[in-house]
Design a protein that fits this description.
This protein has helices at about 15-25, 60-70, 85-95, and strands spanning about 5-10, 30-35, 45, 50-55, 55, 75, 105, 110, 115, 120, 125-130, 135, 140, 145, 150, 155-160, 165, 170, 175, 180, 185-190, 195, 200, 210, 215-220. By secondary structure, it is an alpha/beta fold. The chain folds into two domains: about 5-95, Rossmann fold (3-Layer(aba) Sandwich); about 105-210, UDP N-Acetylglucosamine Acyltransferase, domain 1. A hairpin with a 4-residue loop joins strand 24 and strand 25. The N and C termini lie far apart (about 40 Å).
């Protein structure tokens, strides 16, 4: 381990992992040791000119990595289509004693009065306003915005260009897809999913999938 630097493993090795790698590489106090990937056998991905995402092994290697790299931290780089995998890996990290690390792009605008829990990822051009509070392992994608005093639970995924208005509350494991909007003071229940481009103006039940303008429930998913 490089002295003075915190080792970090990225969970995932696809395109989203490349984005997270870029964000983490901006921080001089971190040492990215590589990625874990379920799709073993694939060649290591390249990022830019000659920078590779080194695949260390399956997710099952995490306890071994923690023993090999004292002070190891981790960040999730798995998209919203695998929310069950994200939830499972969060529990794996807890059991292995591997704390999460945040990854906030230098071109994101995050208020000093916003609260971002460990493991949060914020992409370029995203805006998080004063008084907003995000739980652990949230992901706020490129050009998304979270207005003042909004509340996000744990493992919430906000897609590109999505808009979360003031005082809205999103419970754990929610997905807001690309370009969707959640109006002020709306409550989104656990494991709910808001389809791309939808406008949510009323509360959404747990596990509901909503689409359209205004958004309506079209089905329920198993948590």
């Amino acid at each position: 381990m490089v002295e003075g630097k915190t080792p970090v493993v990225i969970l995932g090795a696809g395109g989203y992992a490349a984005l997270v790698h870029e964000i983490l590489a901006q921080r001089q106090n971190l040492l990215i040791i590589g990625c874990t990937d379920k799709a073993l056998g694939l060649s290591e991905r390249s990022v830019g000119d000659g920078v590779s995402l080194r695949i260390l092994g399956d997710d099952d290697i995490l306890p071994e990595l923690a023993a090999r790299h004292p002070g190891l931290h981790a960040v999730l780089a798995i998209g919203p289509d695998l929310m069950d995998v994200r939830s499972r890996l969060i529990q794996t990290l807890k059991l292995a004693g591997i704390p999460p690390v945040a990854a906030v792009h230098q071109q994101a605008a995050v208020s000093q009065l916003a609260r971002l829990a460990a493991g949060t990822i914020v992409g370029a051009g995203a805006t998080i306003s004063t008084g907003a509070a995000l739980g652990e392992h949230c992901a706020v994608q490129i050009n998304a915005s979270i207005d003042h005093d909004a509340r996000l639970g744990n493992n919430v995924f906000i897609g590109q260009g999505a808009r979360i208005s003031s005082y809205a509350e999103l419970k754990d494991n929610v997905v807001i897809e690309i370009g969707a909007s959640v109006n002020s003071r709306v409550l989104i229940g656990e494991h709910a999913r808001v389809a791309g481009g939808a406008f949510v103006n009323t509360d959404v039940p747990d596990c509901a999938v909503v689409v359209g303008v205004p958004a309506r429930v079209v089905r329920y998913i198993e948590a």
